[in-house]
Design goal:
Blueprint lengths: L10 H6 L1 H7 L1 H23 L3 E2 L5 E2 L11 E4 L4 E5 L4 H9 L4 E9 L11 E10 L3 H19 L4 E4 L2 E4 L5 E4 H9 L8 H10 L10 H12 L8 E4 L11 E2 L2 E5 L1 E6 L2 E8 L4 H10 L9 H8 L5 E7 H8 L19
Parallel strand pairs: 1-5, 9-10
Antiparallel strand pairs: 2-4, 3-4, 5-6, 6-15, 7-8, 10-13, 11-12, 13-14, 14-15
Length: about 350
């Protein structure tokens, strides 16, 4: 065993040898007991609210539900390529078509992208869908289940996260994506050109690729200037429609998506929206987004033709939620065995 007086303090060794970390550092053990409690209570709350837990494929022929880069594998038995899912969204929506009206899934997702304190290549996510509900009703539900979760786990609606005090008392702030960027970056997303966004990104010293389009530029500016300053729970709403190709447009302004993001402690916790259920519009969106042909799920589009009810849905990262509620500075502190670079 490591020398008891000093314990196991080297961060990298703690993650590589989590079994020793759990033995030597009781606070780490308590953190993962808390994680189990959080997931248990989430399941209980959703069940009490009438939601049914389901399971959808992790190996998928098309990596749908998000534009993230997938992990690719091969199935010998059927001589076909498969992908580890980036999100369960399109399969859960098929279940809405099939008549299940309130469903959720807690499971692993995989994205072959960058790693940082808020991202791990494999992570746990909960996705929830509610037929005959809309974005605004879903935001009310988010406040409701968050309050209930905090009551059962933290037993308080105010606590510290990384030295910042967070107050979850209702109602939570709502602000449009446009107003938030205007307030923090002094640029109007409804009026500025792509060139002006590039100039603003350069002024803010944000690394951008020459292929970034206007939406990607404004999203990078938002992440740099707005999100880190958003500490108390805040619903960011009314994003440009092209930033959410699976979302319904707002009835009073089709240029905006009927979408919200919940940001807490400078972290995006939840992404949700009123679901687009028009098969012709969804196919048009897929094509306009320049999504590669192999990423367009034609079976999903066919399922929409059979009639998906109006619905609202959300996705929430469990690892981020645990990090927030256990005051962990990184997802690695909230995942028992995080992905690590080989020692070699």
């Amino acid at each position: 065993m490591p020398e008891k007086w000093h314990g196991l303090k080297d961060t990298e060794e703690r993650f590589r040898k989590r079994y020793l970390d759990l033995i030597m550092n009781p606070e780490v053990r308590d953190k993962f007991i808390m994680r189990s409690k959080i997931v248990e209570e989430l399941r209980n709350i959703f069940s009490e609210k009438g939601f049914m837990e389901v399971e959808t494929p992790i190996l998928q022929p098309i990596p749908g539900g998000a534009l993230a880069k997938p992990f690719k594998t091969y199935l010998n038995a059927l001589d076909m390529d498969l992908y580890l899912r980036v999100a369960p969204e399109l399969y859960l929506k098929r279940l809405l078509v099939g008549g299940f009206e309130k469903i959720f899934e807690i499971g692993r997702c995989f994205r072959n992208e960058g790693m940082d304190k808020h991202h791990n290549p494999d992570f746990t996510m909960v996705e929830l869908y509610w037929a005959y509900q809309d974005r605004d009703g879903l935001m009310d539900f988010v406040e409701e289940f968050f309050h209930e979760l905090l009551k059962r786990t933290k037993k308080d609606f105010e606590f510290s996260y990384q030295g910042q005090e967070i107050n979850f008392k209702r109602p939570w702030k709502k602000i449009t994506f446009r107003d938030l960027i205007l307030e923090n970056a002094n640029i109007d997303i409804d009026k500025a050109s792509e060139k002006e966004f590039r100039e603003k990104a350069k002024e803010l010293k944000i690394d951008i690729d020459k292929d970034y389009h206007k939406c990607k530029l404004m999203d990078e500016i938002y992440k740099e200037t707005c999100r880190p300053k958003t500490i108390n729970p805040t619903f960011v709403i009314d994003h440009p429609a092209e930033m959410a190709i699976l979302s319904k447009p707002k009835e009073d302004n089709p240029l905006k998506a009927d979408r919200f993001q919940l940001v807490v402690g400078g972290i995006e916790m939840i992404n949700g929206f009123s679901e687009l259920n028009d098969p012709l519009e969804q196919e048009k969106r897929f094509k306009e987004s320049k999504m590669a042909e192999e990423r367009r799920d034609q079976d999903f589009l066919e399922s929409l033709q059979h009639g998906m009810p109006p619905a609202a849905g959300l996705g929430m990262g469990i690892d981020r939620l645990v990090a927030l509620l256990t005051d962990s500075h990184s997802l690695r502190e909230a995942i028992l065995f995080p992905t690590m670079r080989s020692k070699k």
